[in-house]
Design goal:
With 174 residues, the chain is α+β, with helices and mostly antiparallel strands. Helix content is 17%, strand content 33%. The protein has two helices and twelve strands; from the N terminus they run H-E-E-H-E-E-E-E-E-E-E-E-E-E. The strands form two sheets. Strands 1, 2, 3, 4, 9, 10, 11 and 12 form an eight-stranded antiparallel β-sheet that branches. This is Signal peptidase I. The chain crosses the membrane at residues 12-31.
Length: 174
């Protein structure tokens, strides 16, 4: 039986629409590519790095200390921040003399490249939230600022898993 041109076009159109729907579902619920803007995560990440972001991870697990997370910016709707989870719900966070303590333990933070952590903070992270900071502590708008503050876990879009651009730095981020 010979197919008509319109039936062939309809078959291609259905295949194309199915592919678009699958791509949208993957991007919306599973994975996305996130571009880094600014230097708040330097030296770990650089301006215009592109990250593969796992969007489903925090529907089945909670963030861990040290995760690089993508979050809805509470002070800039429609903008996303890339930050590091420093303290989790129930943790006692203290920043004094440029040193970060979580639950009384001085944090080993090799990713900040010796940057001084400004702030004089002594707090307990509220339930359902995390305290985030950029690795470039002197140039990061993060939870130390009152207009950002604690981040509800529900506002975390995903976890940065690895860098896909630039190619010479391709690999896992931590």
């Amino acid at each position: 039986m010979k197919k008509t041109i319109s039936s062939v076009i309809w078959e291609y159109l259905k295949s194309f629409l199915l592919a678009v729907i699958i791509a949208l579902i993957i991007r919306t619920y599973l994975f996305q590519i996130t571009e880094v803007y600014g230097q708040s995560m330097y030296p770990t990440l650089h301006d215009h790095d592109r990250l593969f972001t796992n969007r489903i991870i925090y529907t089945i697990a909670k963030p861990d200390r040290g995760d690089i997370v993508i979050l809805d910016a509470p002070d800039r709707p429609g903008t996303f921040y890339v930050k590091r989870a420093i303290a989790l719900a129930g943790d006692r966070l203290k920043i004094t003399g440029g040193i970060v303590y979580v639950n009384g333990e001085k944090q080993d933070e090799p990713y900040i490249n010796g940057n001084f952590t400004e702030g004089d903070i002594d707090t307990v992270v509220p339930p359902g939230t995390v305290f985030v900071m950029g690795d470039n502590r002197g140039n990061s708008h993060d939870s130390r600022s009152p207009d950002v503050s604690y981040i509800p876990v529900d506002d975390i879009e995903g976890k940065a898993v690895f860098r896909i651009w630039p190619f010479d730095k391709f690999g896992k981020v931590n």
